[in-house]
Write a structure and sequence with these properties.
single chain; alpha/beta; TIM Barrel; eight-stranded parallel β-barrel; 14% strand
């Protein structure tokens, strides 16, 4: 389980969370047992004002042994400050939908692919990196995304060096059978790739999507504490699958994650007080199911 709350969860909040508070919250998350946390994003601050303090946050958060601190990087302008800040893993992103790619990144998918290839060549040899593909299961502008289009994009990314690829349901419309089919076929076509899932819960199917992913052999999932999140360029998309909901489900199923559920609940309570955004209903639901 990769916690993406500090990046995807907070990016849609209109009220700026003070940098010192972000640092405290991320340090608290680090004590919950996550192997990786997506801390922030080195994007244009005019596009995502909430994350304009990414460098300052990375400079101050505590280092937790064996935990990777990741950041989203859209282009070469963001890559240099990210590397300078000591980001543990660079997360690139591209959309399976050309229309969404143009709205989100300001250029066609082909240009983003070329930009990513150039950035990969600029990474230090020891750098960790992965890529997230947005709108794999549906797009607010192009509706259904063909599997063949996703497969071709994965092939292109594989050929330029990616071995860790996350399939994202940015709009939150995926059905369990769709998740299972896409995951199974892509794992069969690209056995060298470590595929993960990033599922938004707009239609209430994200948890079912995780189960379908598990059945297909996926064992890496992005979640956000309190169910926060959303994409500014995916109208109607709800937040991410709540970390606590998935954690308690997996615990009941006997699936070990290494995450401290009580520490996580304490964190969510604190985040509710600071960030709000309706995440309290997710907390009460998870506590009743624990």
């Amino acid at each position: 389980m990769i916690e993406v709350g500090p990046r995807d969860g907070w990016q849609n909040l209109t009220e700026f969370i003070p940098t010192a508070t972000k640092i405290e919250l991320i340090d608290e998350l680090g004590c919950c047992g996550f192997n990786e946390i997506e801390v922030s994003s080195f994007v244009n601050p005019k596009a995502i004002p909430q994350l304009r303090d990414a460098a300052a946050v990375f400079a101050a958060i505590k280092s937790v042994p064996s935990m990777v601190t990741a950041a989203l990087v859209p282009n070469r302008r963001g890559l240099e400050p990210a590397l300078k800040a000591g980001v543990g893993k660079i997360v690139f992103f591209i959309s399976a939908s050309d229309t969404h790619n143009r709205k989100n990144l300001g250029c066609p998918q082909s240009e983003t692919l070329s930009e990513i290839k150039i950035m990969l060549e600029q990474l230090p040899a020891v750098a960790q990196f992965r890529v997230s593909i947005s709108n794999v299961f549906g797009c607010p502008y192009e509706d259904q995304i063909l599997f063949s289009s996703v497969k071709q994009l994965v092939k292109n990314l594989f050929e330029i060096g990616f071995r860790e690829i996350t399939l994202c349901d940015t709009l939150g419309v995926a059905t369990p059978d769709q998740v299972y089919e896409f995951s199974t076929r892509l794992k069969g076509d690209f056995p060298e790739v470590d595929f993960g899932l990033h599922l938004h819960d707009s239609c209430g199917r994200a948890l079912a999507g995780v189960i379908a992913g598990l059945q297909a052999g996926i064992d890496r999932f992005d979640t956000a504490a309190g169910g926060l999140g959303g994409c500014p360029y995916a109208p109607g998309a709800a937040g991410n699958l709540a970390t606590e909901d998935l954690l308690f489900t997996l615990d009941k199923m006997g699936v070990k994650t290494g995450i401290d559920s009580q520490a996580l609940l304490a964190y969510v309570r604190r985040q509710v007080l600071i960030a709000g955004n309706g995440s309290s209903h997710m907390l009460s639901f998870s506590e009743s199911c624990n």
